[in-house]
């Protein structure tokens, strides 16, 4: 097996994993009238990657306490809650106290950045573990084409879901800044995002036995996308006192 081939195909799979989230991130960054420092966007994106690994460890531990086969709904709900909280925690630890975090819309921008970092590493895990479970399969062009198809499907599915769910948390974070029950409002955002996330996961799982699942899935993402775009516009237009 040629080392150069392995390196080339591995790089291609990494590109397939990271390109869709980066495209979504560039789209969302256009909503910010006062762009954030690039290094903070990158830092938050990397924080989302770290959050994905932390969430994966927590999810593995969860399996020891809940059997997904018998408590599927509860399992999906807790998985979604773990992931949404992990993304919020990345933003809280890395950028929340920085001086550049000074406008309400920044909360949505940084949350989306973390969410798409999370999505990027999730893409990589799906591609490498499902498409190329062994080194021999890595260098098959057919597998690379199949990987591109999976990446495209996740671009309009799971990657969009992560961006939307994180944006919802970001909106509640922005609204909570001067709210007397700040922590409660943030948790409400995380729970709402988790409900969206859990419903998405459930519909993906049952799509083969429930013909209408994809229709509901499209409606779910479409409704969430419209709501998030409205939230972006509200934070840009409303006269809200800056954080700092």
UniProtKB/TrEMBL annotation:
The chain crosses the membrane at residues 6-27, 39-58, 73-95, 107-132, 152-173, 185-207, 213-232. GO terms for molecular function: peptidase activity. It comes from Candidatus Sungbacteria bacterium RIFCSPLOWO2_02_FULL_48_13b. The keyword Cytoplasm does not apply. The keyword Membrane applies. It holds the Pfam family PrsW-protease. It comes from the Bacteria. InterPro entries: PrsW (IPR026898). This is Protease PrsW. Keywords: Membrane, Transmembrane, Transmembrane helix.
């Amino acid at each position: 097996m040629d080392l150069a081939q392995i390196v080339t195909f591995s790089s291609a799979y990494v590109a397939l994993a990271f390109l869709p989230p980066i495209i979504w991130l560039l789209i969302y960054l256009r909503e910010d009238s006062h762009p954030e420092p690039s290094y903070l966007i990158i830092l938050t994106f990397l924080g989302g990657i770290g959050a994905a690994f932390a969430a994966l460890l927590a999810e593995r531990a969860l399996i020891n306490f809940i059997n997904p086969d018998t408590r599927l709904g509860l399992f999906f709900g807790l998985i979604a809650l773990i992931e949404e909280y992990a993304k919020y925690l990345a933003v809280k630890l890395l950028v929340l106290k920085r001086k550049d975090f000074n406008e309400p819309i920044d909360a949505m921008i940084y949350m989306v950045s973390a969410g798409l970092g999370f999505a990027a590493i999730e893409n990589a895990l799906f591609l490498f573990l499902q498409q190329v479970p062994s080194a021999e399969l890595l260098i098959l062009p057919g597998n690379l084409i199949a990987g591109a198809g999976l990446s495209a499907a996740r671009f309009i599915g799971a990657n969009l879901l992560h961006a939307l769910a994180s944006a919802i948390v970001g909106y509640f974070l922005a609204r909570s800044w001067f709210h007397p029950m700040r922590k409660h409002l943030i948790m409400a955002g995380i729970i709402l995002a988790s409900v969206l996330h859990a419903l998405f996961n459930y519909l993906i799982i049952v799509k083969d036995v429930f013909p209408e699942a994809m229709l509901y899935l499209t409606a779910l993402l479409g409704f969430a996308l419209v709501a998030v775009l409205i939230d972006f516009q509200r934070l840009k237009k409303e006269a809200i006192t800056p954080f700092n």
